[in-house]
Design a protein that fits this description.
43% helix, 163 residues, 5 strands, five-stranded mixed β-sheet
Amino acid sequence: MIQDQTRIQTDIGPAMQTALQAAREASSCGEVPVGAVVLAPDGRVLAVARNHVEGAHDASAHAELLAMREAAACLQNPRLTDCTLVVTLEPCPMCAAAIVHFRIGRVVFGAYDPKGGGVEHGPRIFERPSCLHRPEVIGGVCEREASGLLKDFFRKLRKPIAE
């Protein structure tokens, strides 16, 4: 297991670092710090996105959805078969359902989301009998760093402004 985790970190590490940078950019714009990258089957980056919910006034403008839409446009194909989605936070139920429809081959995420997650928590979309497609899922990659970004963002959000 440790060997597999090391291999995953090496293979996905650069993409997760790109996703983490996108998450930092989201945070600096007042968005929840989530970033996502879609990799082609050959490993090249097809799309990078960050949360854009507040700026776009669009509750569906999650990093995962934006990245998958961009990747599909890049490939001129609505199905991202054998592509990998790398995201800093466990996808929510909405994004997990979209992952199914985009037919993503593998999902790699950083921080677990016990309250809002839809993959390892909550409705566990990919485990439902009615699920049309079940991607490979790898959680906890760069978890400490991804979780730290979220904790810092919400701590600052809740901190009272000094007068």
